[in-house]
Amino acid sequence: MNSKSAAFDELDRKIITALMANARTSFAEIGSAIGLSATAVKRRVDRLRETGVITGFTATVKPAALGWRTEAYVEVYCEGAAPPRRLAEVVRNHPEITAAMTVTGGADALLHVRAVDVEHFEEVLERIRTEPFIRKTISYMVLSHLLPEAPEAAATADAPNVR
């Protein structure tokens, strides 16, 4: 949460959980399920958006339906200490990178890459490797998902309120 965030209660958690399950759920449906009016739910959602708890609404699309059938994770090892800001600039130049984060351990960053096929993935990997500060990469191709897509989203709303 950002600095404007205030603590939120159990009703807020229920609203967030409902919106995470289906962002198109109406305020009336959510209110009916948790014992609030649609107006009260809207006020709470507006407050959660203003305080940065809810950062947006999005559609979840099956990547294969868009032709992105190959998925991989790439560990990135940098020459010296590459600042996260510089890594962020690099990953923004590759639309195939769907997530990127700095990590602990041996690697400096971990990239989630989606591609049309293995040849496309190889081309993306070569583009990433052309960056002068990248020393090496290690790739892991995804064979299958053992949990449903975005399991962290469902767990987040139910997690205790940690400050």
Describe the structure.
The protein is an alpha+beta fold. The protein is built from six helices and four strands. Helix 1 runs antiparallel to helix 6. It is elongated. The N and C termini lie close together (9 Å). Residues 1-5 and 151-163 have low confidence and may be disordered.
Furnish the topology, listing elements before pairings:
Elements: H1 10-21, H2 27-34, H3 38-50, E1 70-78, H4 84-92, E2 97-102, E3 109-115, H5 118-129, E4 134-141, H6 151-158
Mean pLDDT: 87
Main-sheet strand order equals 2-3-1-4
Cα-to-Cα separation, first versus last residue: 9 Å
Show unreliable segments. Answer: 1-5, 151-163
Secondary structure: helix percent: 25-40%
General form: elongated
Largest sheet: 4 strands, antiparallel
Number of beta strands: 4
Note the total helix count. Answer: 6
The sequence of SSEs as H and E is HHHEHEEHEH
Work out the radius of gyration.
20 Å
Overall structural class, as computed from helix and strand content, comes to alpha+beta
User: Strand share of the residues?
Assistant: 15-25%
Domain HTH asnC-type: 8-69
Pfam families: AsnC_trans_reg, HTH_AsnC-type
Organism: Streptomyces ossamyceticus
Protein name: Lrp/AsnC family transcriptional regulator
